[in-house]
Design brief:
Elements: E1 6-11, H1 21-30, H2 33-36, E2 43-48, H3 56-69, E3 73-78, H4 88-97, H5 102-105, E4 115-120, E5 126-130, H6 131-135, E6 138-144, H7 159-164, H8 169-183, H9 185-198, E7 202-210, E8 216-223, H10 227-239, E9 249-255, H11 269-272, E10 274-275, E11 278-279, E12 287-293, E13 312-314, H12 315-320, H13 323-332, E14 344-345, H14 348-356, E15 369-372, E16 380-384, E17 397-399
Parallel strand pairs: 2-3, 2-6, 6-7, 9-12, 9-15, 12-13, 13-14
Antiparallel strand pairs: 1-16, 1-17, 4-5, 7-8, 10-11, 15-16
Length: about 425
């Protein structure tokens, strides 16, 4: 077969992980003026989304405990647009996957798709809010601040985006993404967010920052006042921590798992350097010619948005796809690229050989390969020997043992996948 031999490498990122996440979130909440201003007895909706955020169950529990300690009555709502198949029960199940249930949180989890119209932006965008949130005395959100996988801006993913898109539920998410096709998502997020804030219902949110190892690094209790400006500062900081694939280019990126808990696009598009805008669309990121994805994580219930960003997938991934959920999510986002199905074959050997043959090299062994578990976990990976020369001068990269061939069993499946770290 003459496939490239691979070497395991480790990227050494600064460890910014908080030593006690629960205590940190309690401290952030208890030190916030906007929290102290809420009268005892108030009912507060706490929004939680569908992303695979580290310690999200601990963070959510810390938030509801902080409210309860003040005599406030919190309850949790899913804030996730069309995720969970666009159903109330599906969204409740998404939260349960992350350990967020009425039993674990000690407060009600209210999941419904009903919305209330609350106003209109200057551009004419009708704005709606989750009815359970509207009926509460106030609303706050728990959201990770990070780069968005579909656009570049000063305000991308975070509390503001969750407030604008997620609180509108499925109905609002569809409407806002339609407008985003013409206006751009950042403008829509800002405009809808302003209407949300003007209602007086929005209290603020806990902004979660993760380091390059995707560990909880900082927690900030942002109030409604100047929320966007504060979030812009946090986004700038977290972008400076971002992990990347440490080579300028490779012919094939093998990804063991994709899924909604890893990224809204199944894979972080700003790692694989392709999105609805095209391939290798960010010039400052590594150039990746081909992507092979091997499996789908179970946390999205079969939602495989992102398969369209792959060049080839394994049959096991294809068999795990719930196309109804995938299409719902993709059409809600007004983009069909992510749900287009690539070729798929029953064995790793067949997938790897077929896709390497399209890379334009005289021999398959001449192809450069990077193999990762998923786009969240870039601390350890495998790279082909022909990439090692480009890594020798990088002080943040070290090799972990000799080169090894890719081993297959008698059925053509990889004997050992990238069993490094835990699943996202």
């Amino acid at each position: 077969m003459g496939l490239p031999r691979l070497v395991e490498i480790r990227q050494k990122f600064p460890d910014r992980a908080l030593s006690n996440v629960y205590s940190s979130v309690r401290g952030a909440m208890e030190g916030a003026d906007w929290v102290a201003a809420v009268p005892p007895g108030s009912r507060i909706a706490v929004g939680v989304g569908s992303r695979g955020i580290d310690n999200i169950d601990t963070i959510a529990r810390g938030v509801v405990d902080a409210w309860a300690a003040r005599g406030v009555k919190p309850f949790i709502i899913p804030v996730m647009g069309s995720h969970g198949g666009g159903t109330a029960e599906g969204q409740r199940e998404v939260l349960a996957h992350y350990g967020i249930t009425e039993q674990s949180m000690g407060v009600p989890v209210v999941s419904a798709l009903d919305v209330i119209p609350i106003g209109e932006t200057p551009q004419g965008i009708a704005v709606s809010m989750d009815k359970a949130a509207w009926d509460a005395d106030g609303v706050m959100l728990c959201s990770r601040v990070k780069w968005h996988t579909g656009f570049d801006g000063r305000l991308e993913s975070g509390v503001h985006k969750m407030m604008a898109i997620g609180l509108g539920k499925w109905e609002g998410a569809k409407r806002y993404h339609r407008w985003a096709v013409r206006l751009g998502l950042e403008e829509v997020i800002r405009a809808v967010g302003r209407v949300m804030l003007d209602t007086g219902k929005m209290l603020g949110g806990v902004a979660i920052l993760e380091d390059a190892n995707h560990r909880t690094a900082e927690l900030h209790a942002l109030g409604a006042t100047d929320m966007a400006e504060h979030e812009e500062t946090l986004l700038e900081r977290v972008k400076s921590w971002k992990a990347n694939i440490p080579v300028p280019a490779c012919d094939l990126l093998i990804v063991d798992e994709i899924g909604k808990n890893i990224s809204g696009s199944g894979m972080d598009t700003k790692v694989i350097n392709r999105s609805w805008m095209g391939r290798n669309c960010w010039p400052d990121l590594p150039r990746i010619e081909r992507v092979y994805a091997r499996s789908l994580t179970p946390h999205g219930g079969g939602n495989a948005v992102g398969i369209g960003l792959c060049d080839i997938i394994h049959d096991r991934l294809f068999d795990a796809v719930d196309f109804s959920k995938t299409w719902i999510n993709s059409f809600t986002a007004s983009s069909t690229i992510g749900c287009m199905c690539p070729p798929h074959f029953p064995t790793d050997l067949e997938c790897i050989e077929k896709i390497l043959a399209t890379c334009g090299r005289a021999e398959l062994g001449d192809c450069s390969v990077v193999w990762i578990r998923n786009t969240m976990e870039l601390g350890r990976m495998r790279v082909s020997e022909n990439l090692l020369g480009q890594l020798q001068e990088d002080p943040c990269v070290e090799t972990c043992g000799p080169s090894r061939p890719i081993e297959f069993d008698s059925q053509g499946q990889v004997v050992e996948s990238l069993a490094i770290g835990s699943a996202a």
